[in-house]
Specification:
Length: about 110
């Protein structure tokens, strides 16, 4: 259900703020579940490649995988306020090891 609720909260490019606290309060503000449950759900969504959970300059973001394919009516997109996922080409995500402010992989410890 979290995946479905993230879609209307994403921008015109399928990106949104990616920290578990923000996701919880945007998608399910009255949920009694702890933040750790949302962090685990985001980890599962990333592991199943439904989303790409990434970090830029110490901030967490989410890119919904294949968002463009399923949002055919977006002809007048506004500029995204979230950074693009560097190094991604095509529909299958690959997370290259890039040094600097981009951290490949999900922003959590397994």
């Amino acid at each position: 259900m979290l995946y479905v609720m993230m879609i209307p909260h994403s921008d015109d490019f399928g990106r949104l703020q990616g920290d578990a606290f923000t996701i919880k309060h945007q998608c399910f503000p009255a949920s009694p579940r702890p933040i750790s449950d949302f962090q685990a759900a985001l980890r599962s969504l990333h592991d199943s490649e439904l989303v790409i959970w990434y970090q830029v300059s110490g901030k967490q973001f989410i890119q919904i995988t294949n968002f463009d394919q399923h949002q055919t009516g977006l002809h007048k997109r506004t500029k995204s306020t979230f950074p693009e996922l560097p190094g991604i080409t095509g529909n299958v995500p690959t997370l290259p090891g890039i040094s600097g402010s981009f951290s490949s992989g999900p922003p959590f410890n397994k």
